[in-house]
Amino acid sequence: MAWRAVFTALEAVCEENITALSGPTDLLCGNASGRLLTCMRKIQDHGRALEPVVAGFTAVYHHYDFDADTPGNGYRTLVKGQPQCLRDGSLLQCPVSAAGPPLPCSASAPRQRSWATVLPAGWRAEQEVCEGVHLHAQGLLLWPLPGLSGMAAFSFLTSAKYVIDPELRGAEFERITQNLDMKFWKSFWNLTESELLSGLASVASNLVQLNLTLTIPPEALRLPLASDPRLFAPVSPPVAHWGPGPVNMRLISYELREGQDSDELLAFSRTEATPISVSLVPFGAQKHPPSPWLLIHFHGGGFVAQTSKSHENYLKSWSKDLNVPILSVDYSLAPEAPFPRALEECFYAYCWALKNCHLLGSTAERVCLAGDSAGGNLCITVSMRAIACGVRVPDGIMAAYPATLLTIDASPSRLLTLIDPLLPLGVLSKCLNAYAGVDSQAVQPTEGTSTLSALGRDTALLISDLTHGASNWIQSFLPAEVLGSLSSSHQKSLDNEAHYRSTSPSSSSSNSSSGPRDYPEGFEPLRSERLAVIQTPSCPIVKNPFVSPLLSPDDLLRGLPPVHLVASALDALLDDSVMFAKKLRDMGQPVTLRVVEDLPHGFLSLLGLAKETQVASDICVARIREVFQQQTPPPCTNKQPKLERTNHGPSN
């Protein structure tokens, strides 16, 4: 349904209900009808205020697409999501001024106004364009996705409470996502590595003949220079933060190939943390010759969670579809290992794979880097590191929803973090700060994660709130005079909380800097009462080109291999991908961008749960196959970039 038709239908429904509820009612239904009448008028006011905002978006959003054939950016997503939110009973209000086109630039509550109002390169900034974005989260967990309705909700342990009391549902959703510590989110995202879920995933995934975990000792390497193979460049092992240390990897191959069962490779197999995992090979099975292709994979997880085990499902599928061995790197995670440890380990693993490709069942005639989210960032930065060191650059990159900008800057698509239960704004901020080394609190790794322990303290508290939800549900049937005596203590607690917020320094400073508002007369947007504390890092690390590739000077990006970006329309990092693709295109670098619809951030980990995720995974496979099957060497692969600055465009 078109967005104009949705607003027209909303207005008609509100008018019809207001007319019906304004008529004479009996005493028994008077209180309930009065509350419904007030609610309908609020919905009508929000719809009328929101319609011109959406109209403003549609007038300008095509200017921010990558090209005419790739419609996709944060403005389009907001326009597409608004009617869906209206149909679900959740209202998003973004006031605009007449100074220019609408440009959302801050978060959902006054305390979040520290979120930068200056947008990254590529976005126009207008003064006082908008005051903020305000979310009424009481009726929303996630926009319904085809085939994924309810998949991103919290565990079944809390479903009864949500059904009983939608008001409590919204409040608890905000509480559990806004200000939890990093330990909780590490455990939550690592649920897929628990014995139960990983076992189920193994049953449903493709069978492979080789799934071997490796530990590579920290030994110096020597690789030939790309410009002159007669000369060699030294490659040091990772040393950041705690000195030289081993690098863990996982080798997955659909077919057993020469070298993969050699004693030299098996000597690197892990014998302590993770047992050797070699799939059953049919007796007498013939070994296949080495593949001319090699896929090196860096997993996602916000730089703080997950391993190659979390991504086994789609990696096995890719190995079968491409008939290629895959080496996935288990790099060290933040906050224990902030930048540049992960980059050093991934670059070392890449160089080790080039030097020892014969052990991996490949001749490495074509090498492709692939990764999602944080792994996409590492694919790009590892290639930049290869250019800087003068060694061979990979033949191509496939990055799914990559993190190319690690600053806490606003963009239209990043507003999705206000309603995304898997990647809330507070969590995104914590991940970026952890990788940058801003968060000094270390998180002890979770060993032997079980389903119940991974739920964490705050999720367990939701179970006890079931009685609270049932009480609220029962009270909704009681007369007002009865409720008066029951709610005095509850009202007292709310008053205390309001007093605390009003006297807190952050709240007072935020209120004083709220700025002018351009609301219709008598209209006030619904506001969240669960505020997220967002730390805006001041350290320069987040602007390091090897942390935020989008901020890299052209000299560091010139010479990258073909970059294939696969983004999601419902991803908070969508605008980052669009801007990075535009940056490479304007430099003359080979780049493609594909925006898939109706899928959230991290859709590769949802492979097998819906047909949409399979389609998106097939797009990633097609991009990787393009890298392997390209007929001519990618431009600038074996050339050193010019280091001097120039005002001229790239040479043809």
UniProtKB/TrEMBL annotation:
Its EC number is 3.1.1.23, 3.1.1.79. It is an enzyme of class 3 (hydrolase). Residues 295-448, 543-604 form the Alpha/beta hydrolase fold-3 domain. Coiled coil: none annotated. Residues 502-514 have a biased composition (Low complexity). The gene is lipea. It comes from Oncorhynchus tshawytscha (Chinook salmon). Keywords: Cell membrane, Cholesterol metabolism, Cytoplasm, Hydrolase, Lipid degradation, Lipid droplet, Lipid metabolism, Membrane, Phosphoprotein, Steroid metabolism, Sterol metabolism. The active site is at S373. This is Hormone-sensitive lipase. PANTHER family: HORMONE-SENSITIVE LIPASE (PTHR23025:SF2), TRIACYLGLYCEROL LIPASE (PTHR23025).
